[in-house]
Write a structure and sequence with these properties.
Layout: H1 11-19, H2 23-35, H3 43-54, H4 59-71, H5 79-90, H6 95-107, H7 115-127, H8 131-143, H9 151-162, H10 167-179, H11 187-199, H12 203-224, H13 230-237
Length: about 240
């Protein structure tokens, strides 16, 4: 993966460097055109600069170029081309490209569906701290698809992803704490992670919180009336 990429003092300086053939500047100029930062948004122009940098083996530009093909930005959507450019960058160690290539293998878009290849690329990206890859890898370990089912390993990857504010990982980590899968059962810890995921808009976490609070309310009401079964009270107040 490329590190220590250059910075420039002004847009004009970056633009001049791009015109002179500097790959990093060409990539950043592509980002500017894609996002409309400092220039009018223009996906076709973004694609042109990404391609110039990608042809010089710039991994970040290759990943962005793959994304353009994957999403149909400035070019007709073409998953085969997306896979090609993601692979070019992934083999250089770019974690975003590794994750995106894993997604294509998992879904069978642009490449033959191959869950083992998906896990391989998710793992490579996850080891570099890519949160979505960490979450997806956790799902594979929890379900036991391709890899041996291992709840402890699932929790490990969910936690790494959750700490980077990946809401689905926070929700799944909460479920692990709620059920005691891969970690000691801890309802308070489960609620903590459900709350963080719910605040980010995760619908499953919001539902789980609703169930928890309704159960807690029912248990408190029953306790007040002297009718709560011991196990219900224990579950609600664990």
């Amino acid at each position: 993966m490329q590190t220590n990429r250059r910075t420039w003092q002004s847009f004009d300086e970056m633009h001049a460097a791009a015109q002179q053939g500097e790959a990093a500047a060409q990539c950043y100029l592509g980002i500017c055109y894609q996002t409309g930062q400092g220039v009018a948004q223009d996906y076709v122009e973004a694609l042109r600069w990404y391609r110039r940098a990608a042809d010089q083996n710039d991994a970040a530009a290759q990943c962005y170029l793959g994304f353009c093909y994957q999403s149909g930005l400035g070019v007709p959507q073409e998953y085969g081309q997306a896979a090609k450019w993601f692979r070019e960058a992934a083999e250089q160690g770019d974690p975003a490209a590794q994750f995106n290539l894993g997604v294509l293998y998992e879904t069978g878009q642009g490449v033959p569906q191959n869950y083992a290849e998906a896990v391989k690329w998710y793992h490579a990206a996850a080891e570099q701290g890519e949160p979505q890859a960490q979450f997806n890898l956790g799902v594979f370990y929890e379900t036991g698809q391709v890899v041996p089912q291992n709840y402890e390993e699932a929790v490990k990857w969910y936690l790494l992803s959750a700490e980077q504010e990946c809401a689905p990982a926070q929700c799944n980590l909460g479920l692990c704490y709620e059920t005691g899968r891969g970690v000691e059962k801890n309802v308070r810890e489960a609620v903590k992670w459900f709350c963080r995921a719910a605040r980010a808009g995760d619908k499953t976490a919001q539902h789980n919180l609703g169930v928890y609070y309704s159960t807690l309310e029912a248990a408190e009401k029953a306790t007040a009336e002297g009718e709560a079964p011991a196990e219900a009270a224990d579950e609600a107040t664990a």
